[in-house]
Every structure is written in structure tokens, then in C-alpha cells.
Amino acid sequence: MTNFADLNLAAPILRALTEENYTVPTPIQAQAIPYALAGRDILGLAQTGTGKTAAFALPILHRLADAGRKPDAKTCRALILSPTRELASQIADSFRAYGRHQHLSIATVFGGVSFRPQAERIGRGVDILVATPGRLIDHLDQGTLRLDKVEILVLDEADQMLDMGFVHAIRRIAKVLPKQRQSLFFSATMPRAIGQLAGELLHEPAEVSITPASTTVKAIDQQVIFVETPRKRQVLVDLLRETTPGRTLIFTRTKHGANHVVDHLEANGIPAGAIHGNKSQGQREKALAGFRDGSMKVLVATDIAARGIDVDGVTHVINFDLPNIAESYVHRIGRTARAGASGIAISFCDGEERPFLRSIEALIRERIATTDRRLPPGSPMPRMAASERPAQPHAQDRNKRRPPLRGPAKANDFGRAEGAGASAGPRAHAPGKRPQPAGGRSASAPHVSNGPAVIASTKPVRFNRQKPGSSFSKS
Ligand code: AMP
What we know:
By secondary structure, the protein is of the alpha/beta class. The chain has helices spanning about 10-20, 25-35, 50-65, 85-100, 115-125, 135-140, 160-165, 165-175, 190-200, 230-240, 255-265, 280-295, 305, 325-335, 355-365, 395-400; strands at about 40-45, 75-80, 105-110, 125-130, 150-155, 180-185, 205-210, 220-225, 245-250, 270-275, 300, 315-320, 345-350, 370. Helix 5 links the parallel strand 3 (about 105-110) and strand 4 (about 125-130).
């Protein structure tokens, strides 16, 4: 699947996607959309950040546009259940964006805001209703909404709904839905209780899941640099100045973060470009062309934007922020060391990102060499924007028990009592293999190399040139 046109979506949807700068369907979209368009129920295993909202929103927009009917009063045609009001708002915004050339009505129903305006809105009937279960039940109880006209049901982040105690509410809602409907069910994890709920709600579902990340991490020299978040920009400049990098791809968590990094690099005389969703197609193409022809050595990207990048000869990947989804790390570093070439992956890690590092190490089943570039405690720090702060763990990850590190370990702490692989001093540690985790991510761990960890090699990790005494070396 190379583009959205192959998915046979209606023309107004394709137009909206072009305007959103979506060129390539994400894996979950490429898998789920054909089944959904064919009317099948779906059981999807996918986390936030994979593009799963569009995976269900696009086929719904397509189907509702096809039918061309107006919804009856106090009813909706598509019902999307979400665990939180924030997510409900985001989902509704996505429907508005992808459906901007259609004339479908979209409304939200969640707690914490007045009941009456919601009742008035749904009283006129809506095509697409995005709701949290609690407030939805209130509307059912008050008679301000009926669900007997629902054609499509979506349960998003089902595992989080269960964690939040919504299972009874969901069962109550399911009882008043028509039996004849299409149901799409998405969850980041699939514990037994979720499987059971899916069994109750779905009819012969097509199962889709994002392919576990896999790459030859063997060919990539990986290193983590411990650095305080406010100092990451400066350390990045130092790193790029100390060395003569080839083609360097830098990943940031947010679009704003990418802009801040580019501004800082350019202010320091390092030409760089950014590609992310807020850039126009023209700007993205220009940045990519410069990166391809070598006139611009540094490209800063967000995960999703990077999906469409197909550039050979990336010598360095720098994770300015560690991704909170471990699989993203593998995808990111897989941008280098292509076609048999070697590559270098360097990740900045602040104290708050330490849990992400542990998830990544559990996934790749290797300990990554570390270098410490932190200042002594109490040193003055540069100011930074909110968009540059590290990600918060996914609700699932927060609850998940991490496999123990060897030796005493502290989460969220740059204290000196780290696991065996973490360094407190300027010297980098050669890592050892870590035991396989007992639970959590191990089930979804990709099959990566069983061979010797390259990161334990004696080869120095360096760009082409290195200042004497630089802590960049891991030899
Ligand atoms: P989600 O997992 O649905 O929360 O999506 C994560 C982010 O990816 C959102 O900012 C979407 O706008 C964006 N996105 C989703 N699908 C695509 C795509 N095919 N191409 C580019 N961006 C996308």
C-alpha cells in the first residue's frame, strides 16, 4: 500500500488528507481501512501515535457520506467511545479535519461541562458522536439520546476504559445498540479482560495490529547521553561541532520542539531543516530535497513525519527526545545503517525519560552504552518551552511493572543509584546483555538479533572527527 488513493476512499476525504499533508497510510491504516470499508468488525491492537484515529475515522466518513441520509432527532449514526474527554475532543477534531469537505455533523458528549447544550445539540440528531461512557449513560438515562440508530460503534483505547472502571457502562451501552452494526475495537494491549469484552461486542472480527518493530539493530552503534532537557540543544550543537557528521536525522517529540531545535542550530551556524505536520508540502519537499542532495546535512523530524522519508545514507540518527513508545525507537534508528551500511544512533536522555530508556532496552533486549554530560546538581539551566519537555508515559506504561534492572535502580531520577548500565561519570560503560523481561513488553518484543550486541564492541563510537578528551567515545 503506497498511498491513500489505493484505499478507494471518497474524493472529499482524499482531498482533506492531501491538505493534512498525509501522503502514506500508516501500517495500522493500511491494514484496517480495507476491512472497515468492506463492513467487517475489527479488533485492532495499536497505541496512540500510530495513526489509529484515522484508521477508524476515514472508513466511517466514507460510509456515512455514501449513505447520504440525515440522522433522526436524538440519535447518532456513528458512536465513538473514548476513555477521556481530552481524547474525545481530539477524535472529534480529527473527524472535522478529515471530513472538512463533507457535510456531516459531529458532536461530543463528555462530563465536566454543561449537560443542556449537549442535549440540545444531540436533540437535532448527529452523524458522528464522540463520547465518554459516563456522560453518555447520563444522556440515555435522561432520554436526551437513543442509540437504536447506531450503524457503527468504535471503542477506542479499550484497555484504558477498563482501567478507568468503565466496563459496566460499556456493557450497558452495548445492550441498547442495534445488533446489526459494525464494531471497531482498538486497544494498546490485549489482556484477557479486553479479549473477553471484544468477544462480546464483535462479530467475526478481522484482527489487525501494528507489526512489531524489527530492524538489524546489530549494525547500529547505539549510545545514550544523559543530559538535562534544558541543556539538550546546547549539547546537540557541541556534538555537531565536535564532529563532522554525515547525513543526520534528528527526532523530536513535538512539532514545536522540532522548530526550536532548528532555530537553535541555525542560530549557531548549523544549517538545518524541519519536516512535520505543520509544514506545507512545499516546505517539506524543499527540506527533503536539501537533505537528499547533501546541501543540508541536518534534518529534524517528528515520528509520523519521518514515516514518509525515504533517504539512503543517513549516517546518524539523534533522538533529541526519547520516544515514549519503545517500538518508535527501533523505527527511528532503523533510518540509519540501511543497505548494509553502518550507522550511529545517539539518544539524549533526561531523568524523566529514564523509564522510556528501560522500555527500549527491554524491547531490544540489550543494554545501551551511556555517557554522562550532565552538570553538577544545582548548576543554572537555560529556560525552555513547554513543548520541549519530555513526554509523559502512556497510561498503560505508567501502570506497567518494569522488569528489574540489574543492581539498584531508581525511576525518574538522575541519582547515582542507577542500574548496572547507567553511568554517573563521564566514562561510558560497555553494556552487558540484560535478562529478558518477565512481563509487560516481552510479549510484543520484536525478534531482533541474538548475536553479540554491537554496542558492546570495542570500536569507538564517533562522528568522523573527535576532540581529544571528548566523552563521545565509548571505547
Ligand atoms: P493517532 O495515533 O491517531 O493519535 O495519530 C498520531 C498523529 O499522526 C496525529 O497527529 C495524526 O494527525 C498523525 N497522522 C495520522 N495518520 C497519518 C498519516 N498517514 N500521515 C501523516 N500523519 C498522520
